[in-house]
Amino acid sequence: MSHPMPSLDTIDTTTPLIGLDIETDTTIDGLDPRQSSVLAVAISGGGIEAVLDGPDERSVLVETDRLLASIGAGVLVTWNGAGFDLPFIATRARILGLSLGLITRHDPSIAGRHDPLPGEPGRVRGRWYRLGHLDGFQAYRADVGQNLPISCGLKSLAKFVGLEPVEVDRRRIHELTPEEMHEYVLSDARLARQLVERRVDRFAWVDQDPSSSG
């Protein structure tokens, strides 16, 4: 079944932004999708505030896919999703043999602070069913990061503009209680959306539909 993504000329201020953030298993290597699993996915926006976290990784990804399929046209907002969230989910889905509505395409023109994920050639552009993708980190890095002495990390930038992130030791994510995990991952999804909502040029940063390119 085809799920056409809205073109940029049909996106306007009423188009919903849907924040997405994932948390991975830090007991092994939370940055290597070949070894580590997705523990939770948070969705924030479009009338949805949800954390999908179990009972196992397959269920997390299937329920995330089902929820995103139920949303009409919109824009999925991540923070460094081009370098982390999207390729991580795509790799985990391949390993588990899952068919998701997530489509990604590697784009060597996308810069980043860190090396690509292990096993990945680089950063990606993407879409999920009818939801386009916008990496808020890339947008802010291009202007704010070039002109102000400030980190464009999610927490740093959120605090700079007066938002209040939930902060934990990422190396010990696996030690959080379920309630603490929910609060943390949902906070990150919400902050990504809120920061992008502040940009008047936000829709100029939506990825070109990866399914229409080679």
Describe this structure in words.
This protein has a 7-stranded mixed sheet with strand order 3-2-1-4-7-6-5. It is 30% helix and 19% strand. Helix 4 (154-160) crosses helix 5. It has one domain (8-204): Ribonuclease H-like superfamily/Ribonuclease H (Nucleotidyltransferase, domain 5). The protein is built from 5 helices and 7 strands. The longest helix has 20 residues, at 178-197. It has helices spanning 57-69, 85-96, 136-147, 154-160, 178-197, and strands at residues 17-24, 38-45, 48-52, 74-78, 102-106, 124-128, 131-135.
Low-confidence blocks of residues: none
The portion of residues forming beta strands comes to: 15-25%
CATH architecture: 2-Layer Sandwich
Main sheet, how many strands, which sense, barrel?
A: 7 strands, mixed
- Distance from N terminus to C terminus (CA atoms, Å) equals 20 Å
What's the overall geometry? globular
Q: How are helices and strands ordered from N to C?
A: EEEHEHEEEHHH
Which value, in Å, is the CA radius of gyration? 16 Å
* Strand order, sheet with most strands: 3-2-1-4-7-6-5
Which structural class fits the helix and strand makeup?
A: alpha/beta
Question: For the residues shown, what is the average pLDDT?
Answer: 91
